[in-house]
Model the fold of this input.
Amino acid sequence: MEKLLGIAQATILESVRRKDPYVVLILGFAIVLGAGLFNQFGIEGLEKFVKDVALTVTNILCIVICVVAAARQLPVEIANRTLYPLLAKPVNRTTVFLGKYLGVGLMSSAVVVLFWAELQLLFLAFGISPGAIFFQALYLRILSMWLIAAVVITLSLFLTHGANVTISLLLCLAMSTFANTILAVHDELQGTARRVAEGVYWVAPHLELFDLSKKVIHEWPSIPAGALAALTAYAVLYAAIFIGLGSWRFRRIAL
Amino acid sequence: MWSKLFPLLLIPGFALCGLFVRLYNAQVEEVHTQFTAEEMDAARESIALSLMGQIQFTAHSLIWMKTLEYLHNGVALRIPTEAEEARGLHAHEATDVATGLSHKCGVPVALSDETDWRGPVGRLHRMITPSMEIHGHSNPTELIPWYQLTLKLNPNLERLYTLGGFIMADFAGEPQKALELLEAGVKANPWTFEIRAALGRHLFDYHDRLGMTPEQAYQKAASVLEEAIRCGKDEKARVEKAHGNLDEYQEQLFAESYLFLAKSLTELGQYEKALAVCDEGFKATGYNLIRVQKRVTAKRMDENEARK
Done:
């Protein structure tokens, strides 16, 4: 456990040294500056627009930071040969893999919390009360970071860096479109095509289920705790499958 | 660090598009006089200009979809597939919105309890995504910033000026801002009859909240509406020459141009002129309210004569 935490800490420190937190602060500052534009509309009470822009930008940036951080961990360590001194210590590959995953998960969660704190300040400045669903959205966004980190870090052992980042970003940002397309065409399909569509639907990671932005923006009531529990179980199960797969692959990979 | 900032590069990109459009529109007359026919042909085949146009069009379409989402409280709708239509699910015209906001309401993207094949996952999806059992529309005030953004990208979307002005004045209670928007619309689109019609009506309806005396407002409205009718006739002739028709909203604005011109002239005491406008307007549009206005104007004229 100590070794695992040590590797996770090193991963977070590396992110800090790579100035990731500064990026977060700069981007957050850009959002707040952009919010100044809202005053130009000159109409009082335009809360939805402010929430929409702020949440959309925040969600995209959180996902990008998580994907980029998770995708570079193992390939960069292997390419720079910095993995060898680490493995020379009494640390097995599974611990290294899990440590990296833990580090990326914690760093991404911290980024989400930082962004959400900025959003909270922005909403306070505009006199917007986002309600309890805002915090449910925060919880689901953090949960999705752990799921994304598991998928991306595992894919980094199967794909090249560029392919991994591209596919992961597409999965994260366009999953809603993919899933809705399958739902729309499902009844039109017959036989094998329908079974394939259903198979793809069940296998693909449903990251769109972790996005409550629209409900926050349009002031819907909070969702039942049972839904949060079901999504937590889904994320844990899905992440566990990918971590298991990634760990197995990392143990077998020729270094 | 900078490689991670790449999404921000889109912002200056969009801003640049808006600036180009603004610059282009401001100089449209100049372009026609400065460039030769060959140069204009070359511009028509320019890949860069074509791409810019497509970006404008795509951005406008995306924002229009966004406004529809806002109008449905975040519920995403889509056109039903053939299989869904066979099951009796059809897109229907929205009936509880103003004419300018009319649209086809499709089926919700999140399937209903009866049609969903995903069981508990489907129920979870409906909890996460905004979905509705009974179709309804929200207050359109929140559409204003999206219209403003779209107009920054493409100042030639006349419909958004008229709709934006209507929503600003009627729903947001900001007639002065609506006036500024409509005037900016006329400036950016000197050929427009739609925006002029909306501007004329706005001046007539809201003069008491625009810091104008009634006489000033009616005079200005009359002058704007006369211009609207002139441009409307040109537009109608152009569309009919291409074997088309004005759409429902354009027809309404064209008819209202006559109606509010007659009303303004009546208020100004120019009864003979107002009656002539009523006759011409009813002949051109068949709009019943113009006939009603003719009776009102005639009565006012009689009362005025009697007082003399």
Observations:
- The interface with chain A takes residues 1, 4-5, 7-8, 11, 69-70, 73-74, 76, 78, 81-84, 87, 109-111, 115, 117-118, 120-121, 124-125, 127-130, 138, 141-142, 144-146, 148, 168, 172, 174, 177 of chain B (CB under 8 Å).
- The first helix of chain B runs from residue 10 to 26.
- Chain B has a mean pLDDT of 84.
